[in-house]
Structures are given as C-alpha cells and as structure tokens.
Amino acid sequence: MQAGPSDAVAAGSRFDISHAQGKLYRERYWNHAISMLWRKKVGSPQSVSSSDISPFRKFARELTRQYRLDKADAPEDFFKLCFDMEARLNDG
Q1: Residue 64 pLDDT
Q2: % the chain with pLDDT above 90
Q3: What single string gives the DSSP state of each residue in 65-84?
Q4: For a tag site, which of 4, 19, 20, 39 has the least CB within 10 Å?
C-alpha cells in the first residue's frame, strides 16, 4: 500500500508517521487513494447524519471490492478513518 503525504493526517493520530508505531500502522492500514476517495465522499465531518449511513455503507463496500480489502477488517478500518477525520453523527 502506498502512503500519502504526512501532512494529510492529524498530528498524534494513529497514522502519524513521526512515531515508529505510526509508521508501521500506516504502512499496514493506510491507502492514500482510499482515504482521499472516502474523505471526498464524506465531506465535512460535522455534516454527517444518520441518513448518510446507507450511502456511506454502500460506498465502503464498493471500495472494499475495488481495492480488494480484507472484508473482515474493512469495516473497522473505515470506522478508524472516520474517527481520525473527527466525524460526528449529527441528527438534530
């Protein structure tokens, strides 16, 4: 997997390559192309609502198939990506 630029993640996040563990984690789980496609689809993390979940789930499945991600690990990886993006569910 190809790592993206180091400034594409928040300092101190699990993908922060300034730490050895971050480098290893990022090499194992991070795919810059998937991350950018996901960030483009999700948009502003503050605007995520429960009505967005179904289209996001469908898009995550498409990316999982397209990039041949491990089907058992992909849901957790997308969740971690949303967490790193500081996505919040707002329904009010």
Answers
A1: 85
A2: 2
A3: HHTT--TTTHHHHHHHHHHH
A4: 20
Single-letter residue type at 75: P
Taking only the tens place, the pLDDT of each residue in 47-63 is: 778 888 888 889 999 98
Q: Which domain holds residue 41?
A: 6-84
**In this structure, are residues 84 and 15 in contact, taking their beta carbons and an 8 Å threshold?**
yes
Closest by alpha carbon to 1, among 37, 39, 32? 32
Please report whether residue 23 resides in a domain: yes
42 in a domain, yes or no?
Answer: yes
For the record, the structure tokens of 86 come out as: 């500081």
Tokens of 47: 């605007």
Residue 37 belongs to some domain of the structure: yes
Q: Give a yes or no: residue 89 inside a domain.
A: no
pLDDT above 50: residue 73: yes
Number of domains in the chain: 1
